[in-house]
Amino acid sequence: MSRSLLQKRRATAIVLPPEHVAQRGSSIRPPYTAAMPYNTSKKRKRGQESGDPPAPSATNGVDTSKPTAIFEPKGGRSWTLSVAIPGSIILNAQSHDLRTILAGQIARALAVFSVDEVIIFDDGQGGASRRRHPAAAPHQQQHQSSRGQPNDHDTTNDHISSYTGHTDPNHFLTHLLTYLETPPYLRKHLLPIHPNLRTAGTLPSLDMPHHYRADEWCVYKEGVTLPMEEEEEEEQGDHGGGVVVGGGDQQRGSSQNPTKKKRKTTTENKPASTHPPSTIVEVGLHQKVIVPVSIPPNTRVTLKLTSSTGQDDGEGTYISAQAVSPSAPRTEAGYYWGYNIRRCASLSAVFTECPWEGGYDVSFGTSERGRPVDDALSSLTGIPFKHMVVVFGGVAGLEKACEKDEELRRLGVGRDGSGVETLFDHWINLLPKGQGSRTVRTEEAVWIGLMALKGVVDANQGG
Q: What's the CA gap between 383 and 89, in Å, rounded?
């Protein structure tokens, strides 16, 4: 074929007659010409075009623009629901983005089904993570928040400050779950910039009951204590030895008199105070909140507000509150208040390190070699429990986690993958038949399992 003929065919391939343009619709647009002036006017707001249907209202339809599944507490409860998963599932994702998405899927399941505790255990399939865990433990014990969540973000530890998605999957999953559970207005105070979190902001919000907006009111609040500023330190006569700083970002670190020079205070020239110590806590409201106790700065605390209207202390209005146990919103009023995170070095530690006296009174282990879940649940509906735990395996299953557990091997359990079912009250298969895929991933099994056991949880009368 000659070059001239080829060029001619190429030219005809991109020149379409007008009738063909009309047939192909919007996929090919006619070029801009003077006969088709461009509309330079601003776009109308959505829903205001003449052809759009009117916005739904209470009289002509159902408003689906806002969620209606608002959590409503029904009285205090003492029972809890726990989930245990191996951190090694992070290694089953091939990139950082996929690891982040996997953690987001787990967190969404925990929030949707109101899980109170999530345990990240080492199943021996994470490679270097087994050697890393003991070294990280002293650091975690040093930085405990009021919810019992370890602060694993100290830059003094090379392991903690570096990316851990492929070196320590247990830490990576703990880090992501901590970020998502923390109310958004507290993240900048409690979670420094870290390589693990570089795309965490793209994950769907958990939108749990304690993730309140600034214009929403609840008697319970999650907050963080604010550090003492040198300028407020010399003006604390009205509040004793407490922390007196503004409640908002623009007020923090600023003085009432911007021209006033800073002056270091010493024990000799500091005026004696007769007022009890107090602490300012950031809770995401427009007003500052004061608790009548001294709490170290940058500590996450759960508060119960004792006043709903601001009181004037001479420097602005504030709301008084008292620090309570992180479980108080659940035990006193029945709120779902997010999940606590616990890390364990082995499968056996899930049970031996249980934070509740008496341990878990109902436990489920999941495996494709277990009893069909429907058969197991037929005798469970209506049986009360105080603390229930559901344990999921990783890629290799709970049998491999049992084999790698030195404590269980010493007791003669789990050799050659046998006897692992004796660790649980119920050994169940979540999808005994009709499974279209050869495997069910752990993040999928969490959703399936919590949905299958929801009837047991809803029927619980354990208090």
A: 32
Would you state the structure tokens that stand for residue 47, as one six-digit string?
Answer: 């829903």
| Cα separations in angstroms, 223 against 220, 303, 319, 356 | 10, 7, 13, 25
How many other CB atoms are there within 10 angstroms of residue 87's CB atom? 25
Q: What is the amino acid identity at position 205?
A: S
The CA distance from 457 to 443, in Å, is 20
Separation between Cα atoms, residue 381 and residue 362, nearest integer Å? 13
How far from 125 is each of 32, 93, 170, 342, 388, CA to CA, in Å?
Answer: 61, 14, 11, 19, 26
How is residue 396 written in tokens?
Answer: 């290799």
Neighbour tally for 238: CB within 10 Å: 13
Q: How confident is the model at residue 238 (pLDDT cuts 50, 70, 90)?
A: very low
The pTM assigned to this predicted structure is 0.73
Q: How many CB atoms lie within 10 A of CB 21?
A: 13
What residues contact 132, with CB distance under 8 A and at least 6 apart? 159, 167, 168, 171
Two tokens at 370?
């277990």
SS3 345: coil
- CA–CA distance, 28 with 18 (Å, rounded to integer): 11
Q: Are 102 and 443 in contact (CB under 8 A)?
A: yes
- In order, the DSSP letters of 157-184 are SHHHHS--TTT-HHHHHHHHHHHHHS-H
Q: Which residues pair with 157 in a beta bridge?
A: none
Specify the pLDDT at position 90: 96
Q: Give the type of residue at 338.
A: G
Distance CA 225, CA 189 (A): 9
Tokens matching residue 285: 């409201």
Residue 175 in tokens = 């880090």
Q: Is residue 125 packed enough to be buried (19+ CB in 10 Å), middle (13-18) or exposed (0-12)?
A: buried
Q: Name the packing angle between helices 129-142 and 169-181 (round to 10°).
A: 40
Strands, DSSP E only, in 2-105?
80-86
Please give the mean pLDDT across all residues of the chain: 75
DSSP code, position 308: S
Residue 150 DSSP class:
B
pLDDT of residue 305: 92
Q: What is the DSSP letter of 134?
A: H
Q: Higher confidence at residue 131 or residue 128?
A: 128
DSSP H stretches of helix in 85-128: 96-112
Using the Cα atoms of residue 296, residue 298, residue 303 and residue 309 in order, give the sign of their dihedral. positive
- E strands, 107-263, are 117-121, 220-225
Residue closest to 124 by CA, chosen among 82, 178, 78, 87: 87
DSSP 263: -
